[in-house]
Amino acid sequence: MNKTVQRLLWAGAGVAALAAANSAIFAKAKAQGNPLGGEGRFWPGPYGDLFYARQGKGLPVLLLHGVYEGASSYEWRKNFDSLSEHFNVYALDLLGFGLSDKPRIDYTGQKYIEQIEQFIKEVIKEPCAIVASSLSSAYAVQAAHDLPDLIQNLILVCPTGLRRLSKEPGAKTELAYQLLHAPLIGTTVHNALTSVPSLRYYLMNQTYFDPSYVDDEMIEHYFTVSHQYGSQNAPPAFIGGLLNHSVAAAFPALTQKAIRIVWGREARMTPLSDAEAFLAANARAELSVFDKSGLLPQDEQAQGFNRLVVELLTEDAPRATRTRSKKPQENE
Length: 332
Fold this sequence. Notes:
The protein is of the alpha/beta class. 39% of the residues lie in helices and 16% in strands. This is Alpha/beta hydrolase.
């Protein structure tokens, strides 16, 4: 046997071993359940079935989680029950995440916008409010611009689309996407990014202000969600910039009743300084800042966050004082 054949055999064995290791990691993950409770249903969207939980009566409120490895409506677990005491709350798992289908397709920001708009038209079917987090805020802004009669209030948590995650993907990010979209390489990188040590580091150092929030139960949840079959299909599009969406045109044109920007003061990846661009772009926008909070004030400061949402969306509640200074309104 010549050396070339030997090398090919060793390479093939290495690829097979890597593929087997990837499959074993997914096989070990537990089955995922609905983290919120309420009434769980599936809606047949244009690219696959989308899972959503619904609970409550009154004004419809749609909760949209952020986009990242292991993302799902779990992000709203401390808000769903509380808000459903006042509103008819829908918590949607975006395509490729949570309990929704995870097809191997080309994911784009525009596809997500289309799905959100169609979900509102076909499932909610009446004027609603959207509470969105991170990149999903950009999709919510575009949907509100397109459907002003159906989306009457917006609450955006650490939004993107003006300074961050707004540019079209470049050559380098396109190459990264192609590599990560390749089955073997992509799944291997996905498993590395969603290993227990990687998840713990990201959540403790990039997501939460108080690392004590990150316990073993949370890590187990994120590991489980990110190792359901197909969960490696959507994240490469995020890393490669295909999910970016600019709201430079849509956000200044919004005329919704309430446009509230919410930020965690200690947010790292999307810092509080980004809020100034949103306040400058639309005079109707108002800012609320939660101390002792990172990217997820709805989790770290859930009680104050829930109170803010109820006050904003209840018609007879007094409006909070408008804040546009460098020292924004604080909420405890």
